[in-house]
Design a protein that fits this description.
158 residues, alpha/beta, 6 strands
């Protein structure tokens, strides 16, 4: 179910055909919360949809300023197809990632989505990226916002 500030479940976004940025997270939603806060601070009018693998994660992202949100496997699968840009921890691409919260169906939908994916490394997901030393979460949040800005410029939306 979609939750949030949108009066008609996000339909006005679809009617205006504006860009949809989806933030996917699980567990406590801390990384997703940080992403939503950073994105909404820089682009307050950008439509950001929180997609939580559980209600705690969705609630954290909504409190951080997401325009609307949805929870659970079907919500992630359904919205991954509709998103223009997906942000989240790299574990969302792995079946059973985020301590088992990412179902194989979710990982397939996210990985198979045509959306541009901006993913943050996480020490908790057993995936190590050969990109240098581990950095604090804020470093990765800043990088994600920079990459989102580049993508928005390519699309002529900023």
């Amino acid at each position: 179910m979609l939750k949030g500030r949108s009066e008609n479940g996000g339909m006005e976004r679809m009617m205006r055909e504006e860009l949809l940025v989806a933030v996917v997270d699980g567990q406590g939603g801390g990384m997703g919360r940080g992403l939503v806060e950073a994105v909404k601070k820089k682009w307050p009018r950008l439509h950001v949809r929180a997609l939580g693998t559980n209600s705690l994660a969705t609630a954290a992202m909504l409190r951080a300023g997401a325009d609307d949100g949805a929870t659970g496997e079907n919500a992630v699968v359904f919205n991954a197809r509709r998103a223009d840009i997906l942000l989240g921890p790299i574990g969302v691409l792995t079946p059973n990632g985020l301590l088992g919260e990412v179902s194989p169906r979710m990982a397939e939908a996210i990985g198979g989505s045509e959306a541009v994916k901006i993913l943050l490394p996480s020490q908790r997901c057993s995936i190590r990226l050969a990109v240098g030393e581990s950095q604090p979460l804020q470093f990765y949040l800043d990088q994600a916002v920079r990459l989102l800005g580049e993508e928005l410029q390519k699309r002529g939306t900023v």
